[in-house]
Structure to design on (97 residues):
C-alpha cells in the first residue's frame, strides 16, 4: 500500500544515528538529514556497531512526527473508503442522493 507521506532512512554519521526523508539513496549521494546536516550516504552492515549509536535528538523527533502523519493519513483513507453495505456514490443511473 502506498502512503501519501514518504518514509525515512536512518543513516549513522559521526557517532549518532540520523535520518533523512525518503527511501535509501546510493552510497556517496549527499543527503540533507532532518537535523539539517548534509552528509554522504554510506551503507553499514546490519550487525555493525554504527546501528547501536544513539539517535540524534532532532532526527528522532522529526521521524516520530512523520510516522504520526502517516498513521493519520492511513486512518483518514480508511474512513473515506466505502465499506460493504454503504450507499453507493451518486452516479448517473442511481437515485438522486
Ligand atoms: Zn540528525
Amino acid at each position: 500500500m502506498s502512503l501519501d507521506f514518504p518514509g525515512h532512512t536512518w543513516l549513522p554519521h559521526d557517532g549518532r544515528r540520523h535520518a533523512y526523508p525518503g527511501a535509501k539513496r546510493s552510497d556517496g549521494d549527499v543527503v540533507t538529514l532532518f537535523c539539517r546536516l548534509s552528509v554522504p550516504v554510506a551503507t553499514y552492515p546490519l550487525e555493525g556497531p554504527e546501528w547501536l549509536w544513539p539517535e540524534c535528538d532532532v532526527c528522532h523527533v522529526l521521524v516520530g512526527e512523520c510516522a504520526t502523519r502517516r498513521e493519520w493519513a492511513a486512518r483518514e483513507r480508511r474512513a473515506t473508503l466505502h465499506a460493504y453495505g454503504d450507499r453507493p456514490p451518486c452516479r448517473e443511473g442511481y437515485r438522486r442522493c
